């Protein structure tokens, strides 16, 4: 029936005129049927069922079914029209409902969903790429800092050995070897060798993600930046220490000569005093050198911590496109094998199913229960479930 015919006012008016009479007729049939059945039911409940009452009940049930059919026919002209009118309205609504599949708004929503998914994939790819870049940069920076620290540690060890050598030369001075020791102190090198960089191999392990050529380039770059500083520091500290020792030599010679002129007891005392003063002076210079070394190590540690914090901050940044549609991201299960439903059922059972009653579970498993009942009622090959929690009972219906 066309839309114009369904919605014609005279057509609707005619049906509405028929509705009250159809209602009265069905109401009368309803009341008569229930009255007859109720009287018979009261008799059966009072006296109990017998053959005669069973035959009467069968007759009344057949009449009830006929009554239902006639009542349906009586009201169909009224309800059918309203059903068709409702269908017209719902059809219009469905055409603009974004949740109805194949509607234009639904297809538009699908386009947005696909676009949002693509933007999300792009954002995630950009984020992963940024994380990889940051990871690689962190690896390079860490290797560079470790190599620099290693070079500094090797240099400081070399500087410490030279300090000790100068101190040993000074402590070994006697009247007999004074000139020779003075010459050695005077000739003690106060500058690094020209090929000193060849004496600075790095023992830092090369990261697995870095090739040897890249690691070599970093080491060379770090060493080229440190060598001028090492040379300046060595010249200053060894030169200053050497100058201080040379300045003390005349006084030590005089002291040694005085000791030589003294009695044995006095000579022993003055020798001990000389050693004590030299040891204190050497300790003072060593403490000053260590203080400068510790200050430099602390500065490097601060730089390392700042670099690590900056790396963590960069990793926390989200790499996203300039425009990102508002999205609602939910996980959706895609079953790739029928056995996956067993895992789904197991998770459902342990989280919700185990808390439900038998009646609630019966409603949820209606389809499965129907199948198992059909298998149990198979005349050719009945199949039953063997379980301590399941029992079968006969359901008898009169035909």
Structure report:
With 399 residues, the protein is mostly helical. 75% of the residues lie in helices and 0% in strands. Helix 4 runs parallel beside helix 6. The chain starts with a helix and ends in a 23-residue tail after the last helix.
Q: Let me know the number of strands.
A: 0
Structural class: mainly alpha
Sheet having the most strands: none
Distance between the termini: 40 Å
The arrangement of helices and strands along the chain is HHHHHHHHHH
By DSSP (H or I, 4+ residues per run), the number of helices equals: 10
| Sequence stretches where pLDDT stays below 50 over 5 or more residues | none
Approximately what portion of the residues adopt beta-strand conformation? under 5%
Q: Averaged pLDDT, please?
A: 84
Q: Helical amount among residues, as a percent range?
A: over 70%
From the alpha carbons, calculate the radius of gyration and give it in angstroms: 51 Å
Shape: rod-shaped
Summarize the model shown:
The protein is 75% helix and 0% strand. It has 399 residues and is an all-alpha fold.
Offer a few descriptive terms.
399 residues, mainly alpha, 75% helix
Secondary-structure blueprint:
Blueprint: H1 3-6, H2 9-47, H3 51-96, H4 104-171, H5 178-187, H6 212-261, H7 264-316, H8 340-351, H9 358-364, H10 366-376
Helix pairs in contact: 2-3, 4-6, 4-7, 5-6, 6-7
